[in-house]
Specification:
4-stranded antiparallel beta sheet, 4 helices, 8 strands, 24% helix, 34% strand
Length: 167
């Protein structure tokens, strides 16, 4: 086979696999946790939310989607939701939510850091704002683990915007 043909085949497979990763995973209501894990793999996180359990499937490192599968008390799927969205971040409550609440709502962060002067832990999430713009959501917690601030910023690694015309 000609070397160009090898490259074209490899490029086609790479593009196809990338598109498959953007498609939402398929989970049917009532499907068992065992069946979900067999198909989707081990979750990146598992959280308890009242009687329900949440299975987290992150596309990190560097991914902009986190899928949360909600299971009822019997271990059957209720729903699946992509949680790294502007709408979901808007449900976070300043001075009320704690780290555990944030994990249940939007999953684990892409990155964790610490600001020593105001003594805040910062969790950073990559996401697509309105499904279009590459953004970072920085979530700040005080020493007691209480949510203190949300800060939305451009993801300059993905969108350097050399013309300076982006949001």
């Amino acid at each position: 086979m000609h070397p160009i043909r090898y490259l074209m085949t490899a490029a086609t497979l790479l593009i196809a696999s990338g598109c498959a990763m953007l498609a939402p995973p398929s989970v049917s209501p009532g499907e068992s946790e065992t069946a979900i894990v067999a198909r989707m793999g081990r979750p990146s996180g598992v959280y308890q939310d009242g009687a329900d359990r949440l299975l987290e499937y992150r596309t990190n490192p560097g991914g902009q989607q986190t899928w949360m599968v909600r299971l009822d008390a019997s271990g059957r799927a209720r729903s699946i939701e992509q949680v790294l969205t502007s709408e979901k971040f808007a449900t976070l409550r300043i001075n009320q939510d704690r780290r555990e609440d944030v994990l249940r709502k939007v999953g684990a962060p892409y990155e964790r850091s610490y600001l020593s002067i105001p003594e805040l832990d910062v969790w950073t999430y990559m996401y697509k704002e309105n499904g279009v713009w590459d953004r970072l959501m920085h979530i700040h917690f005080d020493r007691n683990g209480t949510l203190k601030m949300l800060m939305n910023a451009r993801d300059y690694m993905r969108d350097p915007d050399p013309g300076g015309f982006g949001p």
